[in-house]
Design goal:
With 422 residues, the chain is an all-alpha fold. The chain has 17 helices and no strands.
Amino acid sequence: MLEISQKKASALLSVIGKKFGIDAHYFAKNSLIVTIGHGISVLRGIVTGYLVTRLMPPVMYGEYQFVQSIIGTLGVFTMTGLPTSIARSIAKKEAVPLRYTMKIHTILSSLGAIALLGIIPFLSRWGREDLWPLFVIAAILYVPSIVGPYFFGGIIIGTGKFATSLRTSLDIGAALIVSVCAMLYFKPSSSVLLALMLGIPSIVYMIRLRTMMKDYPSKDHSWKLLRYGAQLSIVTIPVTLSWYVDKLMISALFGLNQLALFSVALMIPEQLKVWAKELFPVSFSRQAHGTDSIERRQKITRAVGIGTLFTGIGILAYMLISPWIIPILFPLYASSNIVILTNIAAATLITTPATLFPQYLEARGMVRELQWANWTAAAFFVGSLFLLVPTYGLIGALFARGIFRLIYVGYSGTAMWCKKIV
């Protein structure tokens, strides 16, 4: 019976592939693997987040989120476009000098670690000199926490070896859940939590990379990969900052307790957003390979339309159940406030499927178009933050995120269709 079902599924995938001109077997297999892998990551995030927010005082959780926001903001030193550049080079069967690239990336990333140490003398001006241990821990773990995921992610996306990614998610998830539970049982600590959340994934990724790097022994010192990675990094600075600037603004205006509340409200919606986003790398190598055409752009547009419909249904379902699950998950926080905030956060996810547009720009090397999309959206985002947050607080910050995402995908989609096919 199972064999018959597999044959029927295979036949159906063949029909779908022929109709839409895609490798349906490839997408089905890898989408399933990525879905399972990220399902584990979501479960890990919800379990650890649930335990932390339930057993750790809000101000302590706010300290952790504050330092994480600064770490994320310093991402401008880390060449955020490097994973995409690595994936694109691998997918296009180009020479990939990973070891040389890793040396350069490690040197650049160390600037972020130095900046974290440089912040410590100024903590007294904010009245939070007691946070210096968190900044020391962050500085020590900053470089490995950046280098490992970047190179691992780039290789996985470029090669399509998502089964390896699944095994890695299992290892990281198990280690984090066990270690966080132990920390909360013996003594809740924002410093230990930060060390675990940065250190464990770094160790697992670097262990995996020791084996994977053997497939790329090239000693070529070509700057091509780094050059494209640098271009994408400059282009994507606004996206990097958009994840954290609002949190830093909230902590400055309203304090760490409100930052903790904002982070809790984002916890489930952002996990779901990343889930959808991580499905897209399955298609990246296919987008980078071959020639550009009207047909390929049409397929992406249809996929965005269908994805938006299903995303809207999912958001509505979440809004209906959130009043019941939020009080259970986060009893230390005012549920009435979190429900409103988390529903608004969920509504901003309606643009998630449309991130296929900027991904296509990345895969096809349309750097100028991607740059305009990012910086235009960033201008609206910063303007929205300054207009909305002082008056409307956390709700204003969520609306600013929604505006950023809408402008970003809207401009990217328009740029994709306006770009002349060469």
